[in-house]
Amino acid sequence: MDVERWLAQIGLPQYAASFRANDIDAEVLRVLDESDLEKLGVTSLGHRKRLLGAIQALKEPARARSPVEEGALARPRAPERRQLTVMFCDLVGSTALSERLDPEDFRDVIRAYQDCCAGVVTRFEGYVAKYLGDGVLIYFGDPSPDEDDAERAVRAALAIRSGIAGFTHEGLRS
Q: Do 87 and 42 share a structural domain?
């Protein structure tokens, strides 16, 4: 994973030089905590929280857990009806791409795509419900709905499209 690209995808490219100067790679990134971010010069509380949320999303790429599994709904609630915005992202042309690339290279492409999706979805306060091969199932409004869930889903979709447009890999184009 390219940490500088990841920072740009979550809207915080201004920290790329500090991360590079401190040898923060994908492995180190996954173990950073709030005090580490302060030492890296991330002085804004909002930026630290955004980074921590995006880092958490990176830790669970294979299978995102539901709010119930997370313990967010510790006590039973009465059933309720509410609106939920559901978004599904799919990497167009991935089957043809998988036939042209080595399996390891294809895995890297899918991982970069999933990292992009997770970072953007976190930034727009969505929830990655599940990864399905090259597809990503995303919820907005779970566990707590907001009036602008649909708008945030559209903005996230546009940001994901912009994020993957910058991907460079032999045989891959946006």
A: no
Three-state secondary structure readout of the chain: CCHHHHHHHCCCHHHHHHHHHCCCCHHHHCCCCHHHHHHCCCCCHHHHHHHHHHHHHHHCCCCCCCHHHHCCCCCCCCCCCCCCEEEEEECCCHHHHHHHCCHHHHHHHHHHHHHHHHHHHHHCCCEEEEEECCEEEEEECCCCCCCCHHHHHHHHHHHHHHHHHCCCECCECC
Q: Which domain does 102 fall in, by range?
A: 77-165
Is residue 65 one of the residues assigned to a domain? no
> How many folded domains does the chain comprise?
2
Instruction: For the chain, give the mean pLDDT.
Output: 82
Q: pLDDT of 83-126, one tens digit each?
A: 889 999 998 888 888 899 999 988 888 888 888 999 999 899 89
